[in-house]
Design goal:
By secondary structure, the protein is α/β, with parallel strands linked by helices. It has one domain: UDP-N-acetylmuramoyl-L-alanine:D-glutamate ligase (3-Layer(aba) Sandwich). Helices cover 35% and strands 23% of the residues. The strands form two sheets. The chain has a ten-stranded mixed beta sheet, with helices on both faces. The chain has a four-stranded mixed beta sheet with strand order 3-2-6-7. The longest helix is centred in the middle third of the chain and has 16 residues.
């Protein structure tokens, strides 16, 4: 039995060297990344027993993904297919005033046609927490159905269900996301949402607290965590508001920092800590992730604890 089980797709990330454009590069560095696998890796680095559910083709590139997750301490429970491919995305680092560039190439991946019965649902039923994100249901109608089924299975078994909205405009429209997520969120206990997504996907005006309270009221979430980028994060838990300021950091690679926050938060909740502590660890894990290359946060607990302790008082409860 794993404490944290996540479900989603991992891809190969291909990046030119810093300072080179995708259109001009003659070399690409390879890494593995995906929202749900990133969460699992961050939590595993903090001592959580984690499992990642997905589908991959029987191919050397599929093995590359599995090898990367195992190297981060995550147990990959993968459906192997004879058809399909490993998705890729191309990431070009940006330097002000030039923004980073992301190009997806993920059509034809096995998770798009994966049915719930193909997965070992017993590992979902016996987990402490099950996590999915808004990226997977955006891939196809079948992926949306499978995500909802797994959330329902977990909820019926009394497993804590967590969901990160993680809206991607290159995958679907705001209205498509809102319609699809409305059904999934009925099975969710803990919601993670970026402040900007609360406005554009759910149409909520106001600040982070307004977003958290309105979503909690609409769906009955136990907790809502609103991420605010450079402003840190805010959580509403049983009516109480907790805020955590961001930790100052030099950014080497911003990709995956939101997933690191989710992984850090869930790891501390699974360890029995309260929401303010989990929020501080989540924000600190995200900050430390930004100092390293790649999507996954290989951040040891000692480093997170040291950062949180060095800035005691950054949290606000009210």
């Amino acid at each position: 039995m794993s404490d944290l089980v996540t479900f989603g797709e991992a891809m190969l990330r291909l990046s030119p060297p810093r300072g080179r454009r995708l259109s001009r590069t003659d070399r690409l560095d390879v890494a593995v990344g995906g929202a749900e696998s990133n969460v699992a890796a961050a939590a595993a680095a903090l001592g959580t027993d984690t499992m990642w559910l997905s589908a991959l083709p029987r191919s050397p590139l599929g093995e590359r993904v599995v090898h990367a997750l195992r190297g981060e301490g995550v147990d990959p429970e993968v459906v192997r297919t004879d058809e399909g491919r490993v998705g890729t995305y191309y990431f070009e680092h940006g330097s002000a005033p030039r923004d980073p560039t992301v190009v997806y190439d993920r059509a034809g991946t096995p998770i798009r046609s994966l049915e719930p019965t193909e997965l070992p649902q017993s590992v979902v039923r016996t987990a402490e927490t099950f996590l999915a994100s808004g990226i997977t249901p955006a891939l196809s109608d079948q992926a949306a159905e499978t995500t909802e089924t797994l959330l329902a299975v977990a909820a019926e078994a009394g497993v804590t269900t967590a969901f990160d909205v993680n809206y991607r405009s290159k995958l679907w429209s705001e209205r498509e996301a809102e319609r699809t997520l409305a059904g999934l969120l009925e099975h969710v206990d803990v919601l993670f949402v970026a402040e900007r997504d609360g406005r554009r996907v759910f149409g909520i005006e106001g600040d982070a607290e307004d977003i958290a309270r309105q979503l909690a009221g609409a769906y009955g979430f136990e907790q809502v965590v609103v991420t605010r980028g450079e402003a840190g994060a805010l959580a509403v838990d049983d009516g109480a508001v907790h805020e955590q300021a961001a930790f100052e950091t030099d950014t080497v690679d911003p990709v995956g920092s939101g997933d690191a926050l989710v992984g850090g938060y869930l790891a501390r909740r699974l360890a029995g800590e309260d929401v303010p502590d989990a929020l501080a660890w989540g924000v600190a894990t995200a900050a430390l992730k930004r100092t390293t290359e790649g999507d996954m946060a290989s951040v040891p607990a000692e480093a997170v604890r040291s950062l949180v302790s060095s800035e005691d008082g950054g949290g606000i409860d009210r």
